[in-house]
Batch of 2 targets.
Target 1
Amino acid sequence: MTRVLQHNYGNPSSHLHSFGRDASDLVEEARQRVALLIGASATEIIFTSGATESCNLAIKGVAEKYGHRGNHIITCLAEHEAVLEPCCLLESRGFDVTWLLPDQYGQVSARQVDEAITARTILVSVMAANNVVGTINPIGEIGRIAKRRGVLFHCDATQAVGKIPVDVEAMGIDLLSLSAHKFHGPKGVGAVYVRGRSPKVRLSAQIDGGGQEHGLRSGTLNVPGIVGMGLACEIARDHLDEDADRITPLRDRFLETLSKKLPRITLNGHPQERLPNTLNIAFGELEATELMQSVPEIAASVGSACTSGTDYPHYVLRAMGLSEDHATNSVRFSLSRFTTDEEIDYCIERIVDAVKALRGHGSKLPTCQTCPTACCGGPEQCGTVEVELEADQNGSLRDAAAGSSKRR
Ligand code: PLP
């Protein structure tokens, strides 16, 4: 990407000069790499700014193009907002939307989809893997049913691509959304797969302009981002099994050790059918926000990080039938290709200490700023004076007066 930023600043739509043609060659190479990762042809890949745009293009694009055939769409209440919101919008414009309820693991069944299809159904949209609990849906079965019933199938595979095998042909997927940053690519770039034959899927563009990407997504292409995504696809493809084999035992050890060391730990999501890297855990009777605030050096998520930074009890957990308290006590941990044994050990130790401290002291105890893990039991017992902290350039919290530093 750095090389492209420095040396390949041509516009890939400008074919008259070598700068443009070089940029175009890089884009086409990346297109091929994205296609290979999901079993598609390069001509079926449309570049976008990420999965939100891809889902919007797929869902609204089908609704507008096929609306004359029917006005019914099927999706699930556990989908990401990138799917829920376009469906809500279409509902407000007169479409009928069936909102399937996931089971207690966050999974929808092919049978639920089959039973919901009517003569007016034009689209089924079901995610490959859930972003909150990591549960994997039976995508191949849903694809087969959609095909048999003559309905288009969009799959938001943002959490699955690059982590588990995804093959649009084998799974009967007609439209697929993905985002590069979910598999170590850059942020702000993604793609939508649009089936080119059997059947050839048609979409109404949602962004009009210069007609790039076969007229489906106008706007100058983000060449460095696309090149980065292409490379991330190739690396993910080469390491798919190896990454999963390495990360899954780490994920399991994390959960098992926490469960041994702490009472009232529960796993949210499917015990087996889930992503290798995702773990959603409820810490009984302890608010997730309070817990994670006391271990700020651990980057985990309460609520939906990929939404807007809010920490409301997650709607996915509520849709799975979990209580509001349970949802409020739940944290999502995501491992990556680069997560180490030492990092898992560190997280276990810090979380166990924090949970014990919070439970031991009652989770509402005031904490002094110099001791944010509450290990001292608050300002009175701590004996330290409250100090004014400011962030230094490295993101460390510095005591403005004394100059001492604490990692954030
Ligand atoms: N779909 C799923 C399942 C996601 O997890 C996300 C983001 O986390 C998105 C869609 C939206 O992706 P982006 O923010 O890259 O547009």
Note: Residues 50-52, 80, 82, 127, 131, 156, 158-159, 179, 190, 306 surround pyridoxal-5'-phosphate (CB under 6 Å).
Target 2
Amino acid sequence: MASNKKLLVLPGDGIGPEVMRQVRRVVDWMDKRRHVSFDLQEGLCGGAAIDAHGTPLTDETMADALQVDAVLFGSVGGPKWDDLPFEQKPERGLLRLRKEMDLFANLRPAMVFPAMADASSLKRELVEGLDIMILRELTGGVYFGEPRGVETLADGTKRAVDTQVYTTPEIERVARVAFELARKRGGKVHSVEKANVMHTGVLWRQTVTKLHEAEGQGIELHHMYADNCAMQLVRYPKQFDVIVTDNLFGDMLSDCAAMLTGSLGMLPSASLGAEDPTTGRRMALYEPVHGSAPDIAGKDIANPLAELLSFAMLLRYSFDMQEDADMVETAITNVLNAGFRTADIYAPGTAKVSTTVMGDTLLREL
Ligand code: NAI
Ligand code: MG
């Protein structure tokens, strides 16, 4: 049993270790009360690794990340390391993890807790109960396609080029993740591109349709143009369950969906890689959407819920522990319903609590 629960924890910098401490308390609780033990290792990444080893990610930690079942990541970076050359910065540690683990599927849920529906930029009735999953292709598309660059033409004008490229295997593997997700959720997938004006969009639509015929039994598939999707997200977001899209459109649509929920301190994410053909195991890294928040680090005021929700995703998607994931998410819902808020989500009439007290309250609720 323990062999399929190997977990590498990389708290990182700034508020990373502070919010991760609250996750560790939940892990200890699970160990004692739920009799689930994790084979847990903790490592260094980012500025913390630079200070200790002179590099944002050692080869040893990289090797550990490749052999565990899941990585739980905090955040990296901060003013202390801002003057380092680009190649040595804390962020390179995270980029190396993403690259070597080949994390091509980025999951960004947008979930609105009942007690937080008034924090949204939309009216309460439009977002109450909202639970959508944006799945963004993360390693292909226009951010990586060749040719790319800027050239100066003979007449002195400049010309910049970026190239959108997708192959059928790249589209298939992310669409397959979308169908898997939909099966564990509401059973509906919107595949989003611009097949009306882009060749990659046409191939995307054909490939997803074909895969759906072969492997999408029971999944309701819709195709939608990206511009319309942006509009629909703010018009009637509850029509969506899983949205799967390319790197560029996913970058924008996931930020747009995130703001439907109101707060950066509550947004988790997951990045998944290829499935091992023999074990069926997927590389996976879970992290909050927020950064290391140097402006509030060390003050015990950061919101630990994004990291805790990232951990709940880890339980759900890497360890298939649906009941435990539900339990953590329900406890968070109840703590918010009871009026407990860290400073970033404080509203008049609620109780402002520290990072540690938010953790205490959650443990009591569990
Ligand atoms: P940030 O997300 O760290 O902070 C933006 C604002 O949101 C700040 O005012 C911060 O106090 C607040 N905030 C963020 N998380 C919060 C939480 N859990 N609770 C309460 N308030 C929270 O983004 P910023 O300021 O652009 O970057 C700061 C550092 O973090 C930089 O060094 C940046 O490179 C790094 N960063 C790292 C990321 C990662 O490790 N994946 C992602 C984004 C930024
Ligand atoms: Mg972005």
Note: The CA atoms of residues 133 and 310 lie 13 Å apart.
